[in-house]
Task: structure prediction
Amino acid sequence: MNNVEAKFILQGYRPNGADAGDATFAAALEQTRADPSLHDWFARELAFDRAVSAKLGEIRPPAGLREAILAGGRVTSSDTTRRRWWEQPAFMAAAAGVAVLFALGLALWPRMAVASPSLAEFALADTMHSETHGGHGADTAALHAMLSAPSTRLGSGLPVDFEALRKAGCRTVTFAEQPVLEVCFKRDGAWFHCYIARRADFPALAAALTPVLSDRNGAGIASWADASHLFVVVSKTGRAPLQRLL
Result:
């Protein structure tokens, strides 16, 4: 199987992981573990699909849409003469349909406007699906040691030299065509995955200066920012271990 075939198959993969055990996707998923570029593509696709699903879940059809559509199908010529054009059920149904399509368009346009706020989703997908973690170099080891220290609290400001870490061998993944660093660390027997991006690479992405916690599919996510960087820390064991790091 090549990457083109794998991408074709993985486009049907549900972002909630329900297809993880489906034999149809087994070979394609194995290909993502063997090819870093395919793995990064798949992580971005999962993040985008989750973001779109969340946006679509927020759409509420206008009140009376079903009734307006049904009424439009029953309208008669005599009834039409008694109504002003903008009161016609058919027009109301069309207007309601346009409203739904407009809301859907907001959910999908532009693609990067949806994907960019989902750095946390990308980090979660990378944590859950990648088997390649870790890095090397003195700068990476120093940051790893600091994150592993019980005295280090998330959100207290991390002394990050992005370029030095990247050049030294810190694991680097690609999100929205920009580099993102990952450093793994362990506290109290639990592993955490810290993702670091430069704010300059994502100028439209808003982030809180204090950690914001969320839960996704049993995993915990903490995200925050400082003046120069965006941070996302993922725990496969849920929110509670992250709360102890604050």
About this structure: Residues 153 and 245 are 5 Å apart (CA to CA). Strands lie at 171-175, 178-187, 190-198, 212-216, 219-225, 229-235.
